[in-house]
C-alpha cells in the first residue's frame, strides 16, 4: 500500500523551449520533463517528482533523491530570478523594513559557515 507523502518544501525549477518541446527542469533533483505546452511539461515534471519522492520515502533512499542539476542550469535559474526581482523592485520599490522582511527568504546555515 502506498503511503501518502505531504510535501512542505520548495523546489527550484526552470522552463524553456527546445525545438517544438517545452522542458520543465527541477534543479534539486535534476529531473526534466517535456511537453507540447508549458503546462504539459510542468504537469509531467510534477508527476515525476511525486513518484521519485514517494519511491525514496518508501524505500528509505532519501540520500539518493537529491542530486543537483549541472551548474549551467543553476546559473540560468539565478539569472531569471534576478531579472524578475529587479523588475519587481523597479515597479514597486519597498518603502519600509516590514516590506523588505516580507520578501526575505532566510535559510539557517551552521554557525561555522
Give an overview in words.
The protein has 113 residues and is of the alpha+beta class. It has 4 helices and 3 strands. It has a 3-stranded antiparallel sheet, sandwiched between helices. The longest helix has 21 residues, at 38-58. The mean pLDDT is 90.
What share of residues are in beta strands?
Answer: 15-25%
- The CA-CA distance between the termini, in Å, is 42 Å
Q: Which class best fits the helix and strand makeup?
A: alpha+beta
Strand order, main sheet: write it out. 1-2-3
* Element string (H = helix, E = strand): EEEHHHH
Uncertain segments of ≥5 residues (pLDDT<50)? none
Helix content: 40-55%
Number of strands: 3
Biggest β-sheet, characterized?
3 strands, antiparallel
Query: What is the tally of helical segments?
Result: 4
| C-alpha-based Rg, rounded | 17 Å
3D shape: globular
The overall pLDDT, averaged over residues, is 90
